[in-house]
Specification:
The complex is a heterodimer of chains A (366) and B (393). Chain A has one domain: MetI-like (MetI-like fold, Orthogonal Bundle). Helix content of chain A is 68%, strand content 0%. Chain A has 15 helices and no strands. The longest helix of chain A is centred in the C-terminal third of the chain and has 30 residues. Chain B folds into 2 domains: 32 residues; 246 residues, MetI-like fold, CATH 1.10.3720. Chain B is built from 12 helices and 8 strands. In chain B, strands 1-2-3-8 form a 4-stranded antiparallel beta sheet. A two-stranded antiparallel ribbon of chain B has the order 4-5. At the A-B interface, α3, α8, α9, α13 and α14 of A face α1, α3, α4, α11 and α12 of B.
Chain lengths: 366, 393
Amino acid sequence: MTDVTQQLPLAIEPPPRAASGLIGWLRANLFSSAFNSILTLLGVAFLAMTIPPFIRWAVVDAVWSAPNSRACAGAGACWAFIHEKFRFILFGTYPYEEQWRPFWAVLIFLALILASCDRRLWGRRLVLLWLAGLAVVGVLMWGEVFGLSYVGTELWSGLPLTLIIAVVGIAFAFPLAILLALGRRSRLPAVRTICVAYIELIRGVPLITVLFMASVMLPLFLPTGVTIDKLLRAQVALILFAAAYLAEVIRGGLQAIPRGQIEAADALGLGYWQRTRLIVLPQALAMVIPPLVNTFIGTFKDTTLVIIIGLFDLLGTINASLNDANWRGTSVEAYVFAAVFYFCFCFFMSRYSYMLEREFNKGRRR
Amino acid sequence: MTTEIIRHPARPSPWRNPAIRGIAFQVLFVAAVVALGAFLVHNTLINLRRQNIASGFGFLDREAAFGIGESLIPYSPADTYARAFLVGLLNTLYVAALGIVLATILGTVMGIARLSRNWLISKLAQVYVETFRNIPLLLQLFFWWGLLRETAPAPRQAWQPLPDVFVSNRGIAFPVPAPDPAYGWMVLAFCVGLVGAIGIFRWARQRQTRTGEQFPTGWVGLGLILGLPLAVFFVSGAPLTLDRPELKGFNFAGGHAVSPEFAALLLGLVIYTGTFIAEIVRAGILAVSWGQSEAAMALGLKPGHRMRLIVLPQALRVIVPPMTSQYLSLTKNSSLAVAIGYPDLVSVANTTINQTGQAVEGIAMIMAVYLTISLIISALMNLYNRSVALVER
């Protein structure tokens, strides 16, 4: 038997040109069939119809500085509005000379959020870091100590308010949610019923009703003479609301814990709380971190609703600056600006959650 | 060697008995919850008496004395608060129902587009999903409302994206077919066709189990459902006259017009919820393993049959439960209408609370309505879910 390769001395040929390189890629990904070619052409037409006018509006024809909206009435975007109102949008009605304080508060928040993304820091140290950070932010915003003048919460607005409501809301909702989720999984019927009723009631109504309830009914609930300020009312509403949603996510983790883990803990003689704290929760929470981050994103987006009960978060200061008679008709620019901000924040968090999900699934992937 | 005397411990104290501890803990917990509730109710009653607000739903029979911009049923400020609530409720249901249908269509198309082998289409769908999912809904509502209210021109210079469709700061006006008696008969024919198609479908399935013979139910059913009304349409002389919107004075007359508030709310809800539905659809289709499709091909099923008999039933099992929660959240999100002035239930209730001070009753009514809607949607979707769910031993 002779060697086949010796009998057929064929040179190894490169793949046909139409199947490799740019043309090959185009063929495989854009023009693989008649239907796909039509879709591609439609897509290109859509892009040609939307992208150039948008760039013309947002960049080429845009006006970057002008005294008022009449001066920049043209075909392009009036970014002068953002330029003019930038500081008000960020810090709102906080006293002008004192605005370095919310500025630092925002920087501390951003630093804390970035630090929380580092998994090496997760644990007790991160909690302490957050507590310290929140204390500093509180001192900065309220003042009255270290020679800082007192600034009431009714003047807090803009970006720091958005971040405070979101961060404090999540921080307080989380422990409450753990208790609710444990309660829902409890063997004690009374505890279970109350927790189920709470979770389903809150999840069945829109956030607005909870906010209305907090702003209109909370004053009625409290003993005569006790008043709580508007920010705290909104904060309580958001905590109660977010806790119900977080509880359901955490319940998913609790349900995924194998029965054997609990039995093993029982066999070791651990009590309910020891078992929960040392065996169940660490595993359950680790399993649901990606959906937890998604719920955090939802809560962050939900903070915009506080403007309906009269607080001025970032969206609220933007609405307030649109009321300026000098800047009529610039709402599209203002909302595009706000959208870019919220998008960056949420997109960053969702990418992070996606990354975590992939990391955690490494062990499960085969 | 010492022998240790094993002492039998005395009976453990009842406090160590898990059953007794459980009961004690529950009693304490319930007592705490009841005490908190009683404290709040007590305070509320005192505060209401102090502010001279009569509790109860008697205010519903009083005259509302406020106008409502758009209404599906006749309404005037002289009507009662109860009727105003009904108007708000109908508006909420209207926008939610329309939103659910449109968001499902948009989301399904985008979800499938994201899985397309066409690179450009899949990227476009991805950009849509990532962008609109990460912007708060309220901001999107404000944006669309601002665009329609402020940036859109006055009716005289209205944009005309399609012939006879006018977009102005007074809303969107579009032509509708002028009423004609033939349309009533067409609706009847449609219903007859629907019933007939269901009957044929049942008969064909029974026949197939009995004899194995197939029947083209799809085409015949489609023919019945669409063909019968079309036949009626042509038999009655094709009476297609469009009622076109025309500029009269400062606004459009004729055709059908929707307010900027309604258009902005619907647009925002559909585009926002569509992103989530797209992700659900994509995940559902990806959840069906490729081996299932390969097995179907090996059995010689046609692509259409493969999709309908193998892939879709399994994908729906994954899709339906999260879809339910999206429908619920769309309905609840429609309450954001209050921010842009569309008179939905929350907005009407808010006005009522401001006028009468009946905060407790007003909020109780909103909550009751939303809870009822939530329960109905969950019940319907659970019913559907049961029909697609896996039947195990």
